[in-house]
Each structure stands twice: as C-alpha cells, then as structure tokens.
Amino acid sequence: MELHQRLETLFAPTLESMGYEMVRVMFQGRTRPTLQVMAERKDGRPMTVDDCADISRSLSALLDVEDPIQGAYALEVSSPGIDRPLTRAKDFVTWAGFEIKMEALVGVDGRKRFRGKLLGLDGEEVLLHADGQDLRLALSDLKSAKLVLTDELIAAVTRDLEDPDADQQGNQ
What pLDDT, in 10s, does the model give residues 10-55? Predict the structure, then answer.
C-alpha cells in the first residue's frame, strides 16, 4: 500500500469522528518534506482556521503515536478552496456543470490534458464535454482533476455562503 493510502486509512476515522471528510493526502518535497491534508466539513459549511487547527492538533497526536513517516516533515492542513481538486467519485457528481481541468495517465486520442465542462459520472467513468465533443475517461486513468476558477463557480460558491441552507454548490 502506498504512503498516501496508508495515511488516508489512518486519518479517515479521526476526521470522520470530528465531522470532516478527507479530500486529499499528499506527501511531497525532498528538501522540505510536507504532509498536506486537505479536508472539508461534512455539514457543507466553509472551513475555518479553527477547523484546520483542530484537525492539525488531532492528526499531529496520531502521527506522534503511529509514526508512519521517517524523518522530519511539516504538516499542513487546509480546505480544498474554490478551485478544488476533484479526488473522489462523488466530487465528479457534486461539481457537474462546472469547468474542470483533467490530466490522464493514459492518452485519449493522443491527448492527456483536457479542459471542459464536467458532465458528471457514469459508473466509473468521468464524463466531460471538451473541444466540442463528449469524452469518457475511467476514474482509474485520472492523474489529476480540479475545478477551474470561473465567474460561474465564484457566483455559485458565493451564493451558497450567503444562504447556508441552500444546496452546497447550488448547481443541482
């Protein structure tokens, strides 16, 4: 099992019990290694600095006990932000209708990078409208995907912040 998968397995129960969901875990850097944990609130409310600090304290204690990483590193806890990465199957459903950038592990018609409107998810395939055509790409073939910061995305997120009882992304 890769390090990020071991860390996700280690962190998920703690985050879940605190009312958060894990978005992504990354360990990167050689000269200054950093463990980045990206989380969001399960209730859909915006993350605060206090949320990040609470998560950081809990995960630091867990890392001290379990010691899954050798050597020194920095722990960084953050929210996914507006132009968030799409890392889970549900993200491709939740954020359907918005513009995304994706990079594939394998080429589709000679291309690995795509930018277009996310149409959703069909089983294990991401549906994307890019360059005038509809594309299908297996989730397992994705290297990365993230929302593109657009006026439409900002308006949807801002509307949801003003009306916290509205649907989280306002696009369904």
Answer: 999 999 999 999 999 999 998 999 999 999 999 989 999 999 999 9
- Give strand pairing partners of 35: 27, 75
Whole-number Å distance between alpha carbons of 9 and 84: 21
Same structural domain, 8 and 62? yes
Q: State the sign of the Cα–Cα–Cα–Cα dihedral 112, 30, 14, 47.
A: negative
Q: Are residues 15 and 62 in the same domain?
A: yes
Report which residue type is found at 116: G
Q: Determine, yes or no, domain membership for 11.
A: yes
CA atoms within 13 A of residue 16's CA, in its CB half-sphere: 6
How much is the pTM? 0.85
Domain that holds residue 135: 89-162
